[in-house]
Amino acid sequence: MVDTVEVLVDGGKATAGPPLGPALGPKGVNAAQVVAQINEKTKSFAGMKVPVKVLINDDKSFEIKVGT
Q1: Per-residue pLDDT tens for 48-58?
Q2: Number of alpha carbons in the 13 Å side-chain half-sphere of residue 62
Q3: What is the pTM of this model?
Q4: For residue 9, which phi and psi values (nearest 5 degrees)?
Q5: 39 exposed, middle or buried (CB, 10 Å; 0-12, 13-18, 19+)?
C-alpha cells in the first residue's frame, strides 16, 4: 500500500513545519530527508508555490513528484 501526502510549498524553501511536518509525522518517514529532497527538486521554482506529492511505501521509503 502507498500513502500519499499532497502539499503546496515555496520552491526550494520547504520546511518540516506545517503543513508538511504534521502531514509526514504520522506516516513514519524521516521528515528532514523528505524536505531536503523536495527543496532539491523545487529549487528551480524559487518564488513560486509548487504542488508536491510525497508517495510513501510500506517500508517507509518515499518518492517525490513535483507539479502533480
Answers
A1: 999 999 999 99
A2: 25
A3: 0.91
A4: -120, 160
A5: middle
15: exposed, middle or buried (C-beta count within 10 Å: 0-12, 13-18, 19+)?
Answer: middle
Contacts of 20 (CB under 8 A, 6+ apart): 5, 7, 9, 14, 31, 34, 35, 38
| Rounded Cα–Cα distance for residues 44 and 56 (Å) | 24
CATH number of 2-66: 3.30.1550.10
pLDDT in tens, 27-48: 999 999 999 999 999 999 999 9
